[in-house]
Amino acid sequence: MTRTIMIGNHSVGDEQPVYIIAEIGINHNGNLEIVKRLIDVAVMAGCDAVKFQKRTPEKAVPPEYRDVMRETPWGIISYLEYRRKVEFGFDEYSEIDRYCKEKRIDWFTSCWDEESVDFIEQFAPPVYKIASASLTDISLLEHIRSKGRPVILSTGMSTFEEIEQAVSVLGLEKLAIAHSTSTYPCPPGELNLRMIQTLRRRFDCPVGYSGHEVGLQTTLAAVTLGAAFVERHITLDRAMWGSDQAASVEPGGVIRLVRDIRVIEQALGDGVKKVYPSEMSARQRLRRKS
What we know:
The chain is α/β, with parallel strands linked by helices.
């Protein structure tokens, strides 16, 4: 059974090229120039999309954390104020939209609250991402589904029963599921990549991989296990300030990752045994005549 959905102009799913998502997230630290440099990295590497995170700080930050003081590039400020610093508004997202269209790369966000969904909707995103943290937020899932757009559901820190409930709310028609483990960075022993195959067997929709590990090998392994799309955080420098930087991929790594995924796609083939024209001379020379 071939399972595909359309994300923008890309068909994503079985027997399709792997859809490669470079997550900028909040690694821009509120700086639009860093955003543009990261978009340039994604375009240069050949990624299909860049992704951001959108929150309404007053709704997304639990009351007990709002006044917790934190050391940041802007000094020691409350966690709520920090969240405000890294959020972009209409002007910034309008420029992101313009720049991505100029560079011909998809962009979308994971929205953490309904107000953020309504905000991003004005940019007509090709897909919405549901973060692992939001998988059990049924009202948010219902609100996202009401927009009628494709959805990628990330499944970190979730039980199988919770995943099934989320899928029942979202429906399968325009859904893709991302296997993930919500540890930053994630040790190899907790990646559990065979869950990609488990999810493929259980759900009639494209299944991909959202990785937070250090290194590239395991993301490449996810492709060999059937991931229809992959997502990795990207950064200009893993030593930059920010909670997601250590689990991110620097520009040279992004280039290698995309290159190697495309080589693996070619190498996997169709599973039908054949004798290739390039083998014929060896076949004629080396095979003993009966």
